[in-house]
Amino acid sequence: MRKFPLQKYACRVVFGLVGLLAGWGGAAAGLAIGWAADIIVDRVREDVRRKKAADNPTSRGSGSRDAVSGITEPFCGAELVCALAVYCVSDAQIAAEQLRACFGIIGGADWFSLCRPASEAESLNGDLLTECLAALIKQNESAVPVERVFTLLAALEFGWNEAERGRKPSAYLAELLGRRTVSNEIAAAYLILDIPSAASDADVKAAHRRLVSLYHPDTLACLPERQQEIARSAFIRIQHAYETVAAARGW
């Protein structure tokens, strides 16, 4: 059974408990403040890890180092994949969490640092990013974990509104590579819930409850509108993923 990562959610736990003293409304406000604080703390930790890795190059993976950012890519095209992930979810932190769930820490990957440049850009062109990634894959397909990339994109595209955002990057990438679009919904759903496909029913439900408690719109109502939009999108993906797993298990 997976252990609850208390350190990662420490601020939410502390602020939520303190807020509970003032009632359920205070608890909700405390969780929202704690959520924002945890993001800041996590980003500081990422910066510290990145600086340590820069001071000790021998501890990094064997990936290529980007000439502009100076960050080591865990595999060929990783920065493009990270930029596409940020384009899909509009938040570097959420994108980095999904990348960790999909690829792990191969090559000493610092996913947040790889995602941050894209999140700081004024705008991202999803079609252009997809075209660049497709060109790179055609040049050196063996160096890019293509199947995992498709699984990642399928996870990030849960709840995608084509009328508002246009075609899905995964569909366009498949078209550019001359591949048949294969549904990765089940694998993507487990990726979003951050659990293995062999997880018990109880673990699936526990993972869903944990994520809902973090991203439910009512919990984050006091955050700025932009952050609320990002959280709502994440909540939609979580619900879609849970419903997909539930249907596959015959619940």
UniProtKB/TrEMBL annotation:
This is Heat shock protein DnaJ domain protein. Residues 188-250 form the J domain. The keyword Ribonucleoprotein does not apply. InterPro entries: DnaJ_domain (IPR001623), J_dom_sf (IPR036869). Keywords: Stress response. The keyword Ribosomal protein does not apply.
